[in-house]
Design brief:
There is one protein chain. With about 170 residues, the chain is of the alpha+beta class. It has one domain. Helix content is about 50%, strand content about 15%. The strands form two sheets. A two-stranded antiparallel sheet has the order 1-4. The model has no long low-confidence stretch (mean pLDDT about 90).
Length: about 170
C-alpha cells in the first residue's frame, strides 16, 4: 500500500477536518509536525498493524512515539486542556483520513489508550496508566474487505458453538 500523504489543504477539504481550522491555522499548534509524523510509510503501516495484530486502535501503534516528539509533547503539556483537546481530536481526524485512504472503515467503537488521572483543576489532564499519557481512547477500524484474522471473541464464539453441537 503506498503512503498516504495528507497536506493542510487536503485536511481542510475533509468535512470533519475543516472543523479544526483553528488548530491547523494556529501557529502555536504543531500541526505541520503532526502531518510530517503521520505522512510516513512506517507509521502508517504500524497504524494498520495495531488493528490487525494487536487488536488495538490504530493510534496505539504510534502513540508513544507521537507523544515523545518534543514539539508535540511540549504543546500537549503546556497548552490549556481545551486547546490540547482540539489538537488531540484533529489527530484523530488525521488518523481516520489515513485509515480510510488505506481501505479501512470506522467501527463506531473506541478502544482504550490510557487511564485518566483524577481531575485536579491545578494540574494538567493526563493519564495515570495505560499506553498513552495524553490520549484516553481512539477510534477502532476494520478493513473494508474483511479482516485477515478472527478476533479472540469470534474464535471463542465459534468454538463454543461447535462444542454445543457435539453430543
Amino acid at each position: 500500500m503506498p503512503t498516504v500523504i495528507i497536506t493542510r489543504e487536503k485536511f481542510l477539504e475533509d468535512l470533519q477536518g475543516r472543523t479544526f481550522s483553528d488548530v491547523v491555522n494556529d501557529p502555536e499548534q504543531p500541526f505541520d509536525t503532526v502531518l510530517d509524523f503521520f505522512n510516513d510509510d512506517n507509521k502508517q503501516r504500524r497504524l494498520e498493524e495495531s488493528e490487525i495484530h494487536h487488536d488495538r486502535p490504530p493510534l496505539a501503534g504510534v502513540v508513544r512515539e507521537l507523544e515523545a516528539h518534543p514539539a508535540i509533547d511540549r504543546c500537549l503539556a503546556e497548552t490549556h486542556t481545551q486547546r490540547s483537546l482540539r489538537l488531540r481530536q484533529a489527530i484523530g481526524v488525521l488518523v481516520r483520513m489515513i485509515m480510510e485512504a488505506r481501505g479501512w472503515q470506522k467501527t463506531g467503537r473506541k478502544g482504550s489508550l490510557g487511564v485518566r488521572a483524577d481531575k485536579n483543576l491545578w494540574k494538567f489532564t493526563h493519564n495515570s496508566g495505560g499506553l498513552a499519557f495524553w490520549f484516553i481512547r481512539a477510534e477502532r477500524y476494520v478493513r473494508a474487505d474483511g479482516m485477515p484474522f478472527q478476533s479472540v471473541r469470534e474464535r471463542c464464539q465459534k468454538l463454543e458453538s461447535t462444542m454445543l453441537k457435539q453430543p
